[in-house]
Amino acid sequence: MFLNTIISVRISCGRFVNNVTQHVSVTYIGSRNISGKTMRVKAPAPKPAPWPYKTNRYTMLHRFFDRTSARLDENSKLIVVEGPVAAGKSKFAQELADELEMLYFPEANLDMIFTNEYGYDLKQLDPQLPETCRSFDLLQYTVKYSQYIDALAHILSTGQGVVLDRCVYSDFVFAEAMCSKGYISREVRSLYYELRKNSIGELLRPHLVIYLDVPVNKCLENIQKRNISYEKNSPDISYSAELLVYDWSHEGEVEVIVEDIERINFNRYDEQDPKFVDWRYSREEMFAYLRNKYSDGKNFLMTYLNVPRFNIPELLIEAEDAKLALEIYDNAPGNEYAPGYNSSMGDTSILFKSKLPLRETLPVIERRAR
């Protein structure tokens, strides 16, 4: 079991054995079934162009002229692919996103926050840093939380669905595993759950989770083949989402799973049912509020992770060490000034620029093998 909520499970393993006022009423996301491009009978209905949420604010004035619901269709969904390490999730998620014409988000990883806008890997600086300031895996929850906010902002601002390779809701299993093996202390585990409790309620849960189940022996075999060091040594979501589980010992066909997805009626639940409750709204202003929250309000949402705990020695940094680390990071290539203002990295027309980046959007990059 993964995730800490409760849902009904649909098992499909056997298939692989062989201009408006703010009070206008709208139809919530999920009124029609998801459709793949292969079997789609007719082209999707035209909708407004994607909103550039990474660079433009969605203000109160925009809410009257740019309806969020006008962009949302049957494929404006959040799908998460889960499963054991080396189960083939990344390949499957990419193929699924392509078939459903959704945006693929690779598994959230520390490279996303330690790679700056110019592609420089800040982990290269670890040998120069005091030991207490080096990159560490407690940030894994932070990067997954940040990526999930980006996914929600993308769906609500563009109408395009998103396929995530793992997500923030299942991250706790890694904290539990590391604690049980002694890699982190019980105090660090306690802080992890405090961060989680303080932040995860701000998110909208996914529409669909697809779990690729692979036996332990097969996982170990795949891990050895991949030869990635961190893998070698290193609840149930159906209360609020649909869950499909597949035996992925031998990779199946994405088209078959798409057929299963197309059969799911995301509109069969009444107002009292907890399924998809995060996405069921009847007023346009709620969609506008959520869109603004995740696109323009990301920096504020990240402050929910600022939980001070001074009783965990291994997470405390001496002031002198912190000062040294900041100096090293600030002098790294591309970090001297804000993105777009570094002439040494090729930025031009700096004298005519006056705006800073609106939000910190994580780069869409796969984890580097080390």
TrEMBL record:
<keyword id="KW-0813">Transport</keyword>
<keyword id="KW-0274">FAD</keyword>
<comment type="similarity">
    <text>Belongs to the complex I NDUFA10 subunit family.</text>
</comment>
<keyword id="KW-0809">Transit peptide</keyword>
<dbReference type="InterPro" id="IPR015828">
    <property type="entry name" value="NDUFA10"/>
</dbReference>
<keyword id="KW-0679">Respiratory chain</keyword>
<dbReference type="GO" id="GO:0016301">
    <property type="term" value="F:kinase activity"/>
</dbReference>
<dbReference type="InterPro" id="IPR050566">
    <property type="entry name" value="Deoxyribonucleoside_kinase"/>
</dbReference>
<keyword id="KW-0418">Kinase</keyword>
<dbReference type="InterPro" id="IPR027417">
    <property type="entry name" value="P-loop_NTPase"/>
</dbReference>
<dbReference type="GO" id="GO:0005759">
    <property type="term" value="C:mitochondrial matrix"/>
</dbReference>
<dbReference type="InterPro" id="IPR031314">
    <property type="entry name" value="DNK_dom"/>
</dbReference>
<keyword id="KW-0285">Flavoprotein</keyword>
<keyword id="KW-0808">Transferase</keyword>
<comment type="function">
    <text>Accessory subunit of the mitochondrial membrane respiratory chain NADH dehydrogenase (Complex I), that is believed not to be involved in catalysis. Complex I functions in the transfer of electrons from NADH to the respiratory chain. The immediate electron acceptor for the enzyme is believed to be ubiquinone.</text>
</comment>
<feature type="domain" description="Deoxynucleoside kinase">
    <location>
        <begin position="79"/>
        <end position="277"/>
    </location>
</feature>
<protein>
    <recommendedName>
        <fullName>NADH dehydrogenase [ubiquinone] 1 alpha subcomplex subunit 10, mitochondrial</fullName>
    </recommendedName>
</protein>
<dbReference type="Pfam" id="PF01712">
    <property type="entry name" value="dNK"/>
</dbReference>
<dbReference type="GO" id="GO:0006120">
    <property type="term" value="P:mitochondrial electron transport, NADH to ubiquinone"/>
</dbReference>
<keyword id="KW-0249">Electron transport</keyword>
<keyword id="KW-0496">Mitochondrion</keyword>
